[in-house]
Amino acid sequence: xxxxxxxxxxxxxxxxxxxxxxxxxxxxxxxxxxxxxxxxxxxxxxxxxxxxxxxxxxxxxxxxxxxxxxxxxxxxxxxxxxxxxxxxxxxxxxxxxxxxxxxxxxxxxxxxxxxxxxxxxxxxxxxxxxxxxxxxxxxxxxxxxxxxxxxxxxxxxxxxxxxxxxxxxxxxxxxxxxxxxxxxxxxxxxxxxxxxxxxxxxxxxxxxxxxxxxxxxxxxxxxxxxxxxxxxxxxxxxxxxxxxxxxxxxxxxxxxxxxxxxxxxxxxxxxxxxxxxxxxxxxxxxxxxxxxxxxxxxxxxxxxxxxxxxxxxxxxxxxxxxxxxxxxxxxxxxxxxxxxxxxxxxxxxxx
Length: 351
Ligand code: PMV
Fold this sequence. Notes:
34% of the residues lie in helices and 25% in strands. It is an alpha+beta fold. Helix 1 packs across helix 2 and helix 6 packs antiparallel against helix 7.
């Protein structure tokens, strides 16, 4: 491992967005190589982000601070953050230990994929500080261009790879683990969609998505889901291309229900829905049939619901939701740009 240790190198801050999948990544063909069972497509978000500051330290250990808690690789060498730092160092063939400080612009465990933005920000901040990079070009010169970093991030959390591009992103499984691709299908400017995140329950989920991905293979419905996905991916691509929200909405609802049916019938069974989730979906369908709610739902690995709509309808939809669901909290997000990084610490005007 080559030594390029500069103890005085400045801190680097990376800001990475979360994303919401329209066609879900569910199930892995190869766990070690993080090879997904299917292609997935997502919209990168704008407001829901992780901010991670990385700086070198002179000790033999890494540290990670989040929500006022600090852990070190001395005490917890198997912590997912430290295992990921080892991957980044191995890939770059660089050494040096880091202090990391992370925060989210959104509450954790609320149905926003914090692992997507978290691993994207972690990968970018640590790669930039280890290489002393000031730009994407500097990173590319180290063999760490955007797509390579996205591939590194997916080894921490699959969905994190899609957060490396703004707008609408595709993670293609390819014919073998090393033929996976992460590409931007459409820029954020292509379509101004909003994601209204309705937090029905802020409780932490009992089963992690990593465990649930494995359980999918036990579901009798999983082969049927996989067999239909090529067609769905084409329909979703066409719907985004032609900005056809009804066509997109119908596919994204089917995809979410299908993913959760596979989870509920997997081995072991995993049920992310709460009673409130089911009631809320029925309400969405009724309101939409009445012509009051031009929005379509999707649900990740949790009980909370994302309503995808045209950004111009977002405020009216939020009012409607708040009137009918006074106990729910609502976060408004929309399509956003990919991650960025800069030298120094986070200042207020950087978000
Ligand atoms: O990246 P993971 O392992 O947290 O899995 C993500 C799974 C879903 O969020 C449910 C779907 C997706 O594609 O983001």
